[in-house]
Amino acid sequence: EVRLLESGGGLAPPGGSLRLSCAASGFTFSNYAMTWVRQAPGKGLEWLSGIGGGGRSTYYADSVKGRFTISRDDSKNTLYLQMNSLRVDDTAIYYCVKEMGVRGYSDPGDFWGLGTLVTVSS
Amino acid sequence: EILMTQSPATLSVSPGERVMFSCRASQSISTYLAWYQQKPGQAPRLLIYGASTRATGIPARFSGSGSGTEFTLTISSLQSEDFAVYYCQEYHNWPPYTFGQGTKLEIK
After folding, report:
1. What is the rounded distance in angstroms from the CA atom of residue A34 to the CA atom of residue B28?
2. B91 chain-A contacts, CB cut-off 8 A
């Protein structure tokens, strides 16, 4: 059974940093691309960042480019999102998503974690 | 960036009825279209990918159609557990990929 467990969310001040983690199990982690998607309170879904299997390729939404960094440690079956220069509008639930393929593009996400809440406030 | 537009924002339908959700892309995305269901307090669940392929474990009452810029998700006979928000997402070519704004399915 595929399981994705996010952690690392919490309260951060504007301009602060947080590092999210996503522990994966139930599949061969290195064989699949992974993605972060967020959902602001009461709002829709926003694709943020993706990384191919093996970490060779990374992709970002314009809203987070230069502030957020996606990475993975295949030896630990863990996905990360380093978030710097946080803004109030980064407040959201952050979901870790497994993609159906390894490339990091042109594949949908087929399993989602339960999410971790990030609140940016002074 | 591709813009995905879902309509309507809210649908009120009775159990047992058939319902259709619309999703339009601002440019052709072939069949690189997925549908997700999200219930309150839960993560989204993949229903359909490739515009018309049901994901593993998804009941046959869910079906998807369309290509290019116009897509439809159909639920043939609504069950009580189907009331949720439905999102479409394009994954054509390179990221970033965009979601539609969602359609909320309510009990009539």
Report:
1. 25
2. 105-108
Q: B16 exposed, middle or buried (CB, 10 Å; 0-12, 13-18, 19+)?
A: exposed
Q: How far, in Å, are A115, A118, B44, B45 from residue A18 at the CA level?
A: 15, 9, 24, 26
Nearest CA of chain B to the CA of A58: how many Å? 9
For residue B82, what is the DSSP state? G
For residue range A18-60, list pLDDT tens digits in order: 999 999 999 999 999 999 999 999 999 999 999 999 888 999 9
For A58, name the nearest residue in chain B, comparing CA atoms only. B95
- Residue A57 vs residues A19, A53, A100: alpha-carbon distances, Å: 20, 8, 16
Geometric angle at alpha carbon B103, from B99 and B104, rounded to 5°: 135
Task: Report the SS3 class of residue B51.
Answer: coil
Verify whether the Cβ–Cβ distance A95 to B46 is below 8 Å: no
Sign, Cα dihedral of A105, A94, A111, B50: negative
For residues A111 and A86, what is the distance between their CA atoms, to the nearest angstrom? 27
Among candidates B43, B87, B99 on the partner chain, residue whose Cβ is nearest the Cβ of A113: B43
- Is residue A112 a contact partner of residue A96, using CB atoms and an 8 Å limit? yes
Q: How large is the average pLDDT for residues B9-30?
A: 97
What residues in B contact A112, CB-CB < 8 Å? 43-45
